[in-house]
Amino acid sequence: MSEGERLTELAKRRGFYFPSSSAYGGAAGFWTYGPQGAALKSNIEDAWRDRYVVKEGHQEISAPDVMPEPVFEASGHLDGFDDMIVECGECGATHRADHLVEDNTDIEEAESLPNEEVMDLIAEHGIECPSCHTSLADQPVDNFNLMFETNIGPGSSSPGYLRPETAQGIFVEFPQLSEYARNQLPFGVAQIGKAYRNEISPRKSLVRVREFTQAELEHFIDPEENEPPLAEVEDVVLPLYSVADQQAEDGGQRELTVREAVDDGVVESEWVAYYLGVSKEWYERIGVDMDRFRYRQHLAGERAHYASDCWDAESEVDGDWIEITGFAYRGDYDLSKHADHSGEDYTVFKQYDEPITVERATVDPDMSYLGPEFGGSAGAVADALEALAERNPDAFDDDEVTVEVDGESHTVPVEQTNFSVDEVTENGEHIRPHVIEPSFGVGRIIYTVLAHAYETDEVDGEERTYLDLPPEQAPTTVGVFPLMDKDGMAELATDIAGDLRAAGLSVTYDDSGAIGRRYRRQDEVGTPYCVTVDYESLEDGGEAQRASESASGDEPRAGTVTVRERDTTEQKRLPIDGLAETLEQLSTGDRTFDDL
Ligand code: GAP
């Protein structure tokens, strides 16, 4: 069994995730998170929120999943969010053409190639339909838009789309969000939510799906003035695989600190470098194996339409590198597009420290001249003259000035434009912020964390599978078991489970089957600690404890339980009194099991 298959089997058997709607035959690319998976997902999202919202001081929003068509006309998704599709002439199955080329040749980034070249490569390499093995030579390679379309309200007059990235819900609301940030740059807006892509070939369980959760941060900055707090992460060592290294004969991944990566120009944007550093520490925290992890820079042909530079965090599973997060420098692409398409103001007013006096060139064209001369184009000619005066006042130095309107040149005598240059006082200017975007795919991170946590060893002569998840991420922190369901052990164990839950720990109570089997069940879902109540627990725990409990008005309760650590399977006897606090300290790393 491959690593991925082994994981999918465990995920289904133990309730991490499984294919959705299977009672009705299912639909590829849709997965349900079971109880363990939903808890793991929520722990990872909480850890993300803690690092990228709370610790960074950003704001979080929650925007709708469905957005009207004009949003995606402006964002470029309607025209440009396509994958290459090839349909089998025999069985009608559709496949992602670039992936077929990558799977059957040495070419690594076929999506950057033109459709015709991909079609030629399919013929040249004799690539067959993976479903029925008929040759795909001469089958056309077309573009397929990945957005799910819907209608907003009855009828089809108001088309909408399920958002293909959560980011657009932030960009569209920029004017409002900027006001909440008192128009002070830099500020960041984060969102954790669903994104939808009608992938041509969903594959590898959570890796390529049609509905998934993204955790995205859009950090709006003034590119002229704002700098990231690079010193906070400058010593973090990044495993970097740059474009130059990917293209060099003997190139490979290099280890550079954040500071070195910036100083050597390997990572161009300090902001991108900052988030690479922050994220490296975060991935370690949630259990990604750093020996199976790298940052790879996008080749020019791979970059999304909005990005001027992009690095992916990639994890290795089953010998394949999976993109788990994209770190893109989006510039002012999105805000400019939404400003152009909506006519709204997507700028921030940047106040100067001191007012400044500048020379301002203006025109006040004589419409009684422009009207008869240019007819229906007169207004557009006037606008073009105004724009030209602002952009290039020297163009008005001669007797005549020429402007282009809809591809046609119009020449106007300068005296008819009433051109003048005046001194004006300015308090500030409108600027369009730039955006740095770390965009995390939560499902792929879950897949990575589970794959990297999967361990086997031998315990009592039997093979054991366990997940060495960090306690903070584990779906359950403590398993509580009565050794037997008699003589009051179950009652005491139920009480202890209740107390631990009341203290905020995530607890599973299990009284079925042999104790060894119960340990194995918890090992397989990564529960870091198990507590067993046995006969000794029912005995008096000692005068001191009894006295303190009586003094506090609690029922006196007996002494100790066995606490077992998952990875070492080591067991220790600990007093019930203070158990919640001890387990809390263990799970946050404030104490180690050895210290007990
Ligand atoms: N807003 C930028 C953006 O959406 P992306 O690289 O297309 O960028 C970001 O997606 C992340 O979302 C990826 O790094 C990946 O983890 C996740 N992702 C994208 N498509 C996915 C899919 N079909 N299934 C699962 N996760 C996906």
From TrEMBL:
Region entry Disordered, spans: 540-596
PROSITE patterns: AA_TRNA_LIGASE_II (PS50862)
Residue ranges, compositional bias (Basic and acidic residues): 563-575
Main location (coarse class): cytoplasm
Highest taxon of source: Archaea
Keyword terms, alphabetized: Aminoacyl-tRNA synthetase, ATP-binding, Ligase, Nucleotide-binding, Protein biosynthesis
Key word Ligase present: yes
Pfam families: HGTP_anticodon, tRNA-synt_2b
InterPro entries hit by this protein: aa-tRNA-synt_IIb (IPR002314), aa-tRNA-synth_II (IPR006195), aa-tRNA-synth_II/BPL/LPL (IPR045864), Anticodon-bd (IPR004154), Anticodon-bd_dom_sf (IPR036621), Gly-tRNA_synthase/POLG2 (IPR027031), GlyRS-like_core (IPR033731), tRNA-synt_gly (IPR002315)
Keyword Protein biosynthesis: yes
Gene3D superfamilies in the cross-refs: 3.30.40.230, Anticodon-binding domain, Bira Bifunctional Protein, Domain 2
Domain spans labelled Aminoacyl-transfer RNA synthetases class-II family profile: 5-482
EC number(s) per entry: 6.1.1.14
Recorded GO MF terms: ATP binding; glycine-tRNA ligase activity
GO BP terms, alphabetized: glycyl-tRNA aminoacylation
Catalytic EC class: ligase
GO CC annotation terms, alphabetical: cytoplasm
Location(s), subcellular: Cytoplasm
Transmembrane segments: none
Family: Belongs to the class-II aminoacyl-tRNA synthetase family.
PANTHER family linked to this entry: GLYCINE--TRNA LIGASE, GLYCYL-TRNA SYNTHETASE/DNA POLYMERASE SUBUNIT GAMMA-2
Protein name: glycine--tRNA ligase
Taxonomic lineage from the root: Archaea, Methanobacteriati, Methanobacteriota, Stenosarchaea group, Halobacteria
